[in-house]
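User: Sequence in, structure out. Go.
Assistant: Echoing your sequence, followed by the structure tokens.
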Amino acid sequence: MTTIDTVRPGALPHPSVDDRRELGRSVRDRVPRSTVASWEASADRPDPVDLLERQAALREPSLVPLRYGRMLASPFAFYRGGAQLMATDLAGMANTGLTVQLCGDAHLANFGVYAAPDRRLVFSLNDFDETLPGPFEWDVARLAASFEIAGRHRDVDASQRSKIVAAAVRSYRRAMHDFASKATLDLWYERLDVDEISERFGDDTTKDQRKRFDQGIRKAQAKNSLRAMAKLTEVTDGQLRFRSDPPTLVPIEELTTPEEAAEMPDRFSVVLSSYRSTLSTDRQRLLDRFRYVHLARKVVGVGSVGTRAWVILLVGRDDEDPLLLQAKEAQASVLEPFLEPNGFETNGERIVAGQRLMQGASDILLGWHRGIGLDGVERDFFVRQLWDAKGSADLETIETGPLKIYAGLCGWTLALAHARSGDAAAIAGYVGKSDRFDRAMVEFATRYADQSERDHESLRQAVLDGRVEAIGG
């Protein structure tokens, strides 16, 4: 099994912290911190709709119009689905070479709370489909621009938007300096519990805002397999079955012949066995306590629409003891054309390894599978619990003050993920202690938000011209 780092212990050089900081500072000679602020679309920039269509060629054709429909909802929705566009743009810039495990799609909606193995709620990154080692600033740029675009979506004025973006980048920069000074094991155990989030909201929010935050946490805590089962399943002829709600939820019987559906329990036992082998032995024993009941295709997110995603219903001691898993197709990272090969045999393993490296605590049932699909094509998947107390910020209702605080939380969290996989001291040396890096990212975010709005308009025009089809999301 391939790992993130196959170098044997003790074989790596270990320069001093001061030397590593100086290395980071020296990178400024080659790539000044102001470089990112000067971004502009190149003359030969690919047509954004062409890029989306190339990506669509690898997806379920019937769902591609739904993906476009969701992306058309707003420039921010478009941005969420446009990770490949931004990867192409960032790859055209000089980069620092200060490598971390990138999220690859670190926009603000890909952060949130979930239950750690000790059942405490933690805040972290929660989407790793595009993860790959690469220059740290690509993730920071993706995060910064997302707050500028979200601020426009919420009609926040330009001055406040700049402060929100700066809050995210400043939090990242300061946290990286802090992590660079921590003991190695202390850094590895670091995480952001929900209790700490509440403390950070503190006096900077109103009573009503704190009340809504607490309500959001309670809502996340209630999201478990029992709640998912109540929402997604029904009893048919005495059997638990996924509901039919096409195109977002389609039971296996509606995608196959009756004969194929009848064979599914036996076929799926092979899938579960493959997935089981990627878990640790104790978690294999846990999975063995559940039996397969049903399967359905489920549409998820914005950028992921069109990739094959399945929900799997298993039960333990009885029907009131469910486990719902999600098996999501793992395609090549959008970063892969621009970075080193990922070194993993499957993209599912790439995603799982990246998630485990970047998160302080990961889903205990996180694993992967490669197998032949219903269409006879071999594909990669990663598997996780469908709902495990997951929650995220509500962009449609969040106010300016909480959005700024949320920006700080995201910046801190991204810095932690990068510090776990990269050289915190070198990155701290590069970003420095002044606000020069922050200001450069604010300028980049403004420029890139303008570009994203133009790209959103290009998609809208392509739909009007009949070049691509979009349906409501």
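User: And one key feature?
Assistant: Residues 17-222+394-464 form one domain.
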